Model the fold of this input.
Amino acid sequence: MDLIQSYEEHDTDSDDSPLRTLPSKSAAPKVDDTMLALTTAAGAANRALTKPLDPTQHIVNFNPTYDQLWAPIYGPSHPFAKDGLAQGMRNHKLGFVEDAAIAPFLFDEQYNTFHKFGYAADPSGSEGYNYVGDLDRMKETSGISVYNIPQHEQKKRKIEKKKETLEEENQGDEMDVTEVENPASDAWLSKNRKSPWAGKKEGLQGELTEEQKKYAEEYAKKKEDEKSGNNRDKGEVFADKSTFHGKEESDYQGRSWIAPPKDAKATDDHRYIPKRLVHTWSGHTKGVSAIRFFPKHGHLLLSAGMDTKVKIWDVFNSGKCMRTYMGHGKAVRDIWFCNDGTKFLTAGYDKNIKYWDTETGQVISAFSTGKIPYVVRLNPDEDKQNILLAGMSDKKIVQWDMNTGQITQEYDQHLGAVNTITFVDDNRRFVTSSDDKSLRVWEFGIPVVIKYISEPHMHSMPSISLHPNTNWLAAQSLDNQILIYSTRERFQLNKKKRFAGHIVAGYACQVNFSPDGRFVMSGDGEGKCWFWDWKSCKVFRTLKCHEGVCIGCEWHPLEQSKVATCGWDGLIKYW
Done:
């Protein structure tokens, strides 16, 4: 009894006593498991190589295979797209839409068949059922679709239609007159039934009103002009007027006021840089955009103003304005004398080009394409003085024969407005520059570019001048330098000759040479006139000429050291 009791006590205390564990012993023999560890590691690596890449991970520690890179994305969603589609998979607003493997014609055929007969081919293509819908009807019609009605059916329909029309005609004869006139009756409806496409036939057009007649005439005339290429009305029409300001138009011997003085000859070929101001001509109310000396003699100076006027000034004697030519509605952009100076061209922002008689101030002819001409030139050959070239704002160079008034050629290759036209190589070719920052060389009369110069470092060249020895072109580049190009076969840039120092960016300042070719000169954006030595390319002298931009400068053809400059302050100065 005591023994049992003591056992029970021992049981109750057993909760408190700690458990004693015996060391475990394995009955299996010892195995070298290094190879096992290596194989599991290799297996994990292989799995990593075959498993698709996780789009969220930033670093890939191994070279993924092609299959991995191009594998579709697994998982519930793509991390960078709201609807779980990668950007490349999206081909529709709602995600990715697969092309159905059914042609549109077949789809339309089944769709229309279903609506007409009540059955269609089963789109799921499940076995057993080839059709869905009204199968009884399908058996009746032997499964025809709307697009393959049998031949005998078609004939039957035609016969039925013919019968219907005959019946209607017969009915029309038998119908009661009162019924036909009563809109509520079926007879009236069948008689007056119109096709929904039948247009309302209005009454025949009566006489045209005066206004309509006038419009029709104008329209016909416009069409005729377009066909004949007579585009004169395209520019703004402005009355041509000219005022003579001198004492008399001819002297006591009957010589015209534009006749050059007999004693005007070059004293010496050597040219010198001017130092001081000799004379100022002020007559333009706005800026002066270009000046040109009378060819060969320089006893007169022609100027184009932004006040729409062109003026000619006396250089040798009185220094006064001799004549004003008014024929443009907007600023005058460019002027050019013919070889003997008796006529000149003007180009205005009113889209007109006009050919004037210098002496009388009459407009001989006017030309327009409806675009702004930026530069006008005559072919310098004596026998081609009737050929006019104009660089337009619509990227074309247009050639007119002034005798007939017809456009004889269009040179259309530039990608921007044409700024300059310069004849080279005995006038057989000409060089043009444009806002597209390129130079193009053309054979005269052939609208194909024979040389195209465009480099990444090139800027637009709004003014180009030919050296007196005709071997070089000086081009005013808008990156504040004057570049020299050869006029020989290759038209190469002369890298040794570069004239810089002036600021012309944004302005089409004219560049020019002294008649002996020893000096290069140019205006600049700050009103200065710069002179460089041709051989050394060094700055020789600068003159502060104008307030604002000095846009044009021209060396006198005969005088040793006389230069004219013009600026946007409206003044022309003689140095």
Summary: The mean pLDDT is 80. The chain is about 20% helix and 30% strand.
